[in-house]
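sanity check this record:

:::
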Amino acid sequence: MSVSFKPVLHPMNLTMHIARLLAAVLLMSASASFAAAPQYLILDHSTAALMDRPAALAVWTGQVDDKLMKRLDKLYPVGKFGFISQVEGGFTADKTCVVTARAMMVPRSGKSLLFKPSESATAFDAEPGATLEQCKALASDKLKEAIAAVGSSLVAR
């Protein structure tokens, strides 16, 4: 005589398994929707007299909000692209502040960026009789313009 034992899953146990599975799926989807915005590698090659690295990064973070950053990441993944900014200029002999600001999206190779711009924008201006502080403010404004131009060319708002 052979006895066959069939495991029986009690309906209460089945409900608990489904509830745990749903809770896990809900937790994963909730954490994905509240995840921090991706962080691109951003390099700055600016004239120190006009803009230092912290000031340039502050302009980038002020211009590119989390919503835009997430949209950019869907089209241009953080692991494949990064950004470079450059602000150059100074004063002429007659005390005119001349500024050129450039923002570029470039491909990424590991932990470094390749200087092969995928998108770039340049903004420039001159202000006669400006002080050093006014010239720095002009440089910041021109970098904002260049970053906005690159952002608008990458993602339709």
In short: The chain has a mean pLDDT of 84.
